[in-house]
Amino acid sequence: MRNTKIIKIPLIAAPFAAVLSAIVPGLGQLFSHRIKRGLLLFFSFISIIGLFLWRLTLLAHRELTYADKFVKSFSRQPMFVIFISAVLALLWLWIIYDAYHVAKGRKTKGIGIFTLVLLLFFSLGWQISEIDVYKMVKEFPDAWPPLSRILWPWEAAVTRDTSSVEAKAAILADDSVNPPPIPEYIEGKPYIKSTPTYGNMSTLDEKNEAVKGSVLHLEGSGFEPDTVTFIYWEDSIGNEFRPRQDGEYISLITDADGSFTFDLVMPYRLTPPSAVGQQIHHVHARQTSDVGPLKPSEPLLLTIELMLETIFMGMMATFFGIILAIPLSFLAARNLMSGSWITITIYYIIRTIFNITRSIEPMIWALIAVVWVGLGPFAGIIALTIHTIAALGKLYSEAIESIDPGPIEAIQATGANKLQTIMFAVVPQMIPPFVSFTIYRWDINVRMSTVIGMVGGGGIGFLLVQYIRLLDYKSAGIAVWFIAITVAILDYVSSKIREKFV
């Protein structure tokens, strides 16, 4: 007997369906028995309207009415407002046209109308995400220097012991009474003098703009010839820093006799209330040279140490996750837990817990764990373990549900109980997928360890974010390279292990 397809006759005439969709987009399609189509168009149109109004509110948040918001938004971003308004009006007309044709009983695939919906969502997403390709291209030259240091950071991976020579001169700030004397010149020793030996420090005016201080004429001699010499400033309480001039740190190159001259503007320095009496500052001229053999730098040693910590964080989290996920996975397998209402209830409870736990990212769990046990790798292990239990539990249970029922029936036919059935019919089929899922999860945990360290969960991520905050891009680049190399090695090792078992 042939299957006959029931054709549903539209409840209303085509013109009336078009009018209904003009009033409520998608309503005409609903009355024409195209319920999914009508609901999809209705919620899409409403969502686009809501997102558009929300964006107008952000662009003109001080305006009270939507009319004023529209005008203000148009003045700020006319192309965006015109484009969305025009395409939205086109979509509304197309929905009316579609309702008319659907009510007529004509076949319409709807590719065009849903392409228009996707175009609107994409355009709004582009605007809401604040994508600015022009800015990205324009500012790439400024971003390239730090990026290049990250891409090739190996100069910072090694270092040498340093030897430095320096000379200093005393400077009296904000007072010309009893200024310090010019330092005594000693033959064969580095020497620097300032003329005068007193002056006013740079300050900030009412508009927080810099007011230049006194100019000191520096003369140095006795240094290594043709060598870079750095100028440092030491304030009245012993804090040292490198002053800037014209936006650059001050450095000089000595002449063939090891001498230099330079006019230095006294820098800005906030004097603490604890400083009393005459404020004697010092200006230093310092040359630093590398001596001895190459040796691993501190960033390299720290990176290796914390990379090992990261690997073991992933390993420990995977180990603890396996121990707890395996027994729970059997409770979350429908084919093993559908025997009674008690077991099926347990099944739904465990499944719900898995779904809720997996929906929360490991970084969120790491923040919770940091509050619980404090900063460090233990917090990262807790976060990864919680997420691993849920992820592996779901994968294991689905693998159990897809096993061949034949061995189970054969074992049960011999009178085996539930535990014996699992041990001799289920477990042997589980070893290959369990090994595959476990190795894959270890790979994920190592990669996630590099991320949760950024919120205090220990590992290489904690070090990486510190280097980035300090703008030490070469050291950050070493960490990035070690992360990439480690993940690549682990991926290769895990693939070889899977080949042995799967």
Give me the CATH fold name of the largest domain: MetI-like fold
**Total count of domains:** 3
Biggest pleated-sheet summary: 6 strands, mixed
Number of strand segments: 13
Low-confidence stretches: none
Termini separation comes to 47 Å
CATH arch. level architecture of the largest domain? Orthogonal Bundle
Series of secondary-structure elements, N-terminal to C-terminal: HHHHHHHHEEEEEEEEEEEEEHHHHHHHHH
Shape verdict: flat
**What is the level 1 CATH name of the largest domain?**
Mainly Alpha
The helix/strand class is alpha+beta
**Averaged pLDDT, please?**
86
**For the record, what is the CATH homologous superfamily label of the largest domain?**
MetI-like
Strand content: 5-15%
Number of helices: 17
Rg over CA atoms? 36 Å
Helix proportion range: 55-70%
Task: Give a structural overview.
- The chain has 502 residues and is of the alpha+beta class.
- The chain folds into three domains: 14-131, no CATH class; 160-295, Immunoglobulin-like (Sandwich); 298-501, MetI-like (MetI-like fold, Orthogonal Bundle).
- Helices cover 58% and strands 15% of the residues.
- The protein has helices at 14-23, 27-31, 35-59, 66-76, 78-103, 111-128, 133-138, 140-151, 298-331, 334-337, 341-359, 362-373, 377-401, 405-413, 418-452, 460-469, 473-501, and strands at 158-173, 191-195, 198-199, 203-204, 210-211, 215-221, 228-234, 240-241, 244-245, 248-249, 251-253, 260-265, 279-296.
- Strands 1, 3, 7, 8, 11 and 13 form a six-stranded mixed beta sheet that branches.
- Helix 3 packs across helix 4 and helix 14 packs antiparallel against helix 15 (418-452).
- The longest helix has 35 residues, at 418-452.
- The protein is flat.
